[in-house]
Amino acid sequence: MKIRNIFLSILVLFATTSVLSAAKTMRVTLQLPIKHSLGQNWLEFKKLVEKGTNGEIKVVIFPSAQLYKDKQVPGAVGSGAVEAGSALMLRFTGSVPIVDVVSLPFFFKDEAALRASVRNGSHMRSILDKAILKETGAKVLWWQAYSHNVYLNNGKPIRVPADLKGKKVRTYGKILGWTVEQAGGYPTIMSGSKQFLAYQQHAVDVGMTGLSAVKSRKLYEVMKNVTLSYDSVIEFVAIINNDFFNSLSAKNQKVILDAASVVEKHLRDQVYSGEDKLAKELESKINVVRLTPQERAQWQTISKPVTKRFIKATGELGKEVIEAARKDAAGK
Q: Which among 114, 185, 299, 309 is least buried, having the fewest CB atoms inside 10 angstroms?
């Protein structure tokens, strides 16, 4: 009897070990806290994937830059050092300069145009996703809406371009820097995680970020004003190492892609339906500045040369991606 029990135990242990070895772990590197909308987005993805694959894929999320800093994410995922992660779209500009199209000021005339251009299968997105995969080895699973761009400062609120003249401005991308230069300011590229300390120590005069970051990073503790310029959009991408993805069964690949499609829509709906609510919520912590149509028109005027500069810098491919976005917005 004892021999039989020992034999059964060995069989159970063998079966358990086989199941565990068959399971794959997808580690996810995330710059933001798990409570941030991007963190919650990954949690929803995790639940869908683990349930859909019956535990064959285990998703483990490392938030708050525990594994890699934001600028390291594209390389880490592309090389396979980590299986997946969230990266600011602009972190790919070194290898794929055309991704900067999303930062062109007032390029997307409204939310409908933006949604049409960034949806899976759109002309613009197809060009960008393929270029990212080709140049980095990272496959784009879905685009993660973050929010619109806003300005932060102390003292007199930023309302018109002239308010940036002579000021040192924190930016998070080259195109954004060009916009600052058009207004007479001095751009300084800085990662999101360094903002709080930089503002606290007055390393810069003005900040650029997304409205959600004002709350999640508690930037209202070191800045007095937030200007809802909404002149450009901030997009992250959820990426996966292409070799890792190809190593999965066709069934589990489909589960991942289906989950990505679901969580992409949920996040975008949440972000753009909640910005007004978030702005009102922040009013008790920071002075929220809303631009008049006349003030916004001044920003649009000084921003026009930025698009021309982008085309000159990116050549025919830049023209192609701009035209693609315009076709998407027009429903062509």
A: 309
